[in-house]
Amino acid sequence: MTTFQAESVPGVPPPADSVAPRDATAEAPTSVSRLNDTIRGFIERWGSVWVEGEITSWNLRGGNVFGRLKDLRTESVISVRIWSSTLQRLPADLKVGDHVIACVKADYYSRSGDFGFGVSAMRHVGLGDQLERLERLRAQLRAEGLFDPARKRPLPFLPHTIGLITGERSDAEKDVHRNAELRWPQVRFRTRYAAVQGDRCVPETIAALTALDADPEVDVIVIARGGGDPQTLLGFSDERLVRAVAAASTPVVSAIGHENDRPLLDDVADLRASTPTDAAKRIVPDVSEQRALIAHLRSRLTSRLTQRVGHDIAQLEQLRSRPVLRTPETMLQSRSQQLWLSVSRGRDTIDRRIDAQARRAAELRAALRALSPASTLARGYAIAHLADGVIVRDAAQAPFGAEVLVTVGRGSFAARSEGAVAENPAPAEN
């Protein structure tokens, strides 16, 4: 905390009923007047200082100016007073939004307790200095890739809703609306107003950009402002605004000033329009041009289709003129005799093969019959089976009393063995 060393202002006697501020206590307080006088004496020992800033307020009252200067990089502000005698020596074109340097001296009014700075000199900052700073920032942003053409997004062919950021009731707004609606009458706008110069320009433009970028119905955003001197366009080269545009997900069109104006916003935007009117022409198609294009394409399509159909008809007529297609029954008649002969030959061949195979089958059937046990049985032979199905091949297999199944040429019958008998000559076959 600062300790005030001055107890009184030269020429102004301290009140008799108060103590110096440094000696004040709850039992012996100082007076407001003496405190203000002490503060004023302390401040008056400060010297003059040159400061740089932007004029954000410029009110002329009674020949004097009461205004404010804002830091170019932060929101810090000081109040300044310019007396009429000093104002006569200053440039006549000073106004809100100007970038200036001023020689100021702190001043404290002990009667009201107001603190401010008196201005003894003020002038514009040289445009060359500003341009140099802008070029350094431009080089930095280019090195970061913010101006890379590869990152620029294409604009939609026909945006459903256009977001517009501009000054309220400005010529730029009228130009964009009028020219866009002339080209496409059904175009829709969602407009956000923002200051286009001065200390409110950057924060209000960023706020409008954020709101429109978050709107799912907005397909493209246009930031538009009419022409002006380089000082008034400085807000559109502000690093905060440039980075906000680079971070937006919706395509952004820069339409600031005239053709020769080149704020940094032009470099980072997805499309740079030379004027607000040019922006309107480039974000929506011309309905009359589109209709003419459609008519031209329809005419070309009709011509191509007519040509193709005519060509196909000619080819079809050429094919139909050939004898084989003019009288197709001739081809069938010439082939019918050949078909009849082929069928007859095929039928004869099949019949011969069937007869040959039938004879072959009869021969195989006779051979098979001759080898079959049934033929042997038919001649009077029999086959004896034991109860377990074993064929009796030896008389010893059927001892006395053994049950035997005898199979003859026509059926089978059961028998019981009487045992082996003496061998007799086999009977002669009948």
Automatic annotation (TrEMBL):
Its main location: cytoplasm. The keyword Phosphoprotein does not apply. Residues 31-122 form the OB-fold nucleic acid binding domain. Residues 1-30 are annotated as: Disordered. Keywords: Cytoplasm, Exonuclease, Hydrolase, Nuclease. It comes from the Bacteria. Its EC number is 3.1.11.6. Residues 146-362 form the Exonuclease VII large subunit C-terminal domain. Pfam families: Exonuc_VII_L (PF02601), tRNA_anti_2 (PF13742). It is found in: Cytoplasm. InterPro entries: Exonuc_VII_L, Exonuc_VII_lsu_C, OB-fold_nuc-bd_dom. It catalyses: Exonucleolytic cleavage in either 5'- to 3'- or 3'- to 5'-direction to yield nucleoside 5'-phosphates. Belongs to the XseA family. Bidirectionally degrades single-stranded DNA into large acid-insoluble oligonucleotides, which are then degraded further into small acid-soluble oligonucleotides. Heterooligomer composed of large and small subunits. This is Exodeoxyribonuclease 7 large subunit. It comes from Microbacterium terricola. The lineage of its organism: Bacteria, Bacillati, Actinomycetota, Actinomycetes, Micrococcales.
